[in-house]
């Protein structure tokens, strides 16, 4: 249902999904799904378990091949594999943390920095009048740059003092922030957040809300999948609801909150106002 109300602050269209259908054998996981996310916009994708939310993410990320329909990022076909995400300016967090337990906090975030799109932070080419640099020197420059950007990303999320610690030594909410820092360090133009509030308490969710708002204010498009409905309704500019692989609602949070089809999909669970 494209063409729904778009907030005035939203910019150019970053993600467009049209007629997305995904079948696994005889099972239709998604059917004719339309979805838009503009620069600077936060869009929530919600629905009951098994509605197809993660399948949408996987189709955008090249992990699932659509049976029909199109997915475009900044007007171009979405990457056909996850290795194309960073060059396309896309970053994603996972339902599971996806961290490397044998690495430090800093090293985990450096992984995201080293995957930066287009190599634009890799030190740049040898310019006029500059002596050609060896491969070893370029690699060292790239690692130094990655470490510096990783430290800044950790500082932005109040984790700088945790940089040298094994990531597994951190409490779960801080590990979630490390995973988010790893996505943000690549400076994405489209950020996909898969259940970012899962397992968090009220204070951590409030902090997450503020972080996502700051990211969107830079012009980054944000699409999030989340079961914490009140969090979604309070944060998002638009909300898209899936049920059995189909879009049943797409609009402003208040309109979606009142939609009878959404109430039925959630088995009568009332969505309370914040």
TrEMBL record:
Location of region: Disordered: 117-144
GO molecular function, one term: ATP binding
Residues in ABC transporter domain copies: 15-269
Record's signal peptide: none
GO cellular component, as recorded: plasma membrane
Pfam families from the UniProt entry: ABC_tran, BCA_ABC_TP_C
Keyword annotations of the record: ATP-binding, Nucleotide-binding, Transport
Positions with biased composition (Low complexity): 128-138
Protein's recorded name: Branched-chain amino acid transport system ATP-binding protein
